[in-house]
Amino acid sequence: MLRLHPQWNEANPLTGVFNTRSPDRPNPLGLHRVRVRAMAGNRLLVGPIEVIDGTPVVDIKPTLPEVTDN
Questions:
Q1: What HEC string does the chain produce?
Q2: What pLDDT is stored for residue 38 in this prediction?
Q3: Which residues sit opposite 7 in a β-bridge?
Q4: 70 pLDDT exceeds 60?
Q5: Please, are residues 59 and 18 in contact by the beta-carbon 8 Å criterion?
Q6: Which are the contacts of 12, defined by CB distance < 8 A and separation ≥ 6?
Q7: Which of 2, 6, 54, 59 would give a disulfide with 12, using CB separation of 3.0 to 4.6 Å?
Q8: Sign of CA dihedral 15, 21, 23, 29
Q9: pTM of the prediction?
Q10: Start-to-end C-alpha separation, the chain
Q11: CA distances (Å), origin 10, targets 4, 16, 22, 34, 45
Q12: Could you count the other beta carbons within 10 Å of the beta carbon of residue 53?
């Protein structure tokens, strides 16, 4: 299992890479900020996003207000 200290701070406990927002993943994933447009059962409609129709969404995390885009 790949583990790291969240936010590269050794005071934070080691955590699995897929439980963090780390870009250091074993397979590259696209990261996109989107809005949840609709929810129906276990399905979400998100957008806007530049992907091929039918591309799976692997994970959704809330936006952190203290993190800004560079």
A1: CCEECHHHCCCCCCEEHHHCCCCCCCCCCCCCCCEEEEEECCEEEEECCCCCCCCCCCCCCCCCCCCCCC
A2: 94
A3: none
A4: no
A5: yes
A6: 5, 6
A7: 6
A8: positive
A9: 0.45
A10: 30
A11: 9, 14, 14, 31, 37
A12: 4
pLDDT (tens digit per residue) in 29-40: 777 788 889 999
Backbone angles phi, psi at 30, to 5 degrees: -80, 140
Q: Which two tokens stand for residue 3?
A: 């583990």
Query: Residue 32: phi, psi to the nearest 5?
Result: -135, 135
- State what percent of residues in the chain have pLDDT above 90: 14
Per the structure block, which two tokens stand in for 66?
Answer: 């203290």
Highest mean pLDDT among 3-7, 11-15, 18-22: 11-15
Name beta bridge partners: 22: none
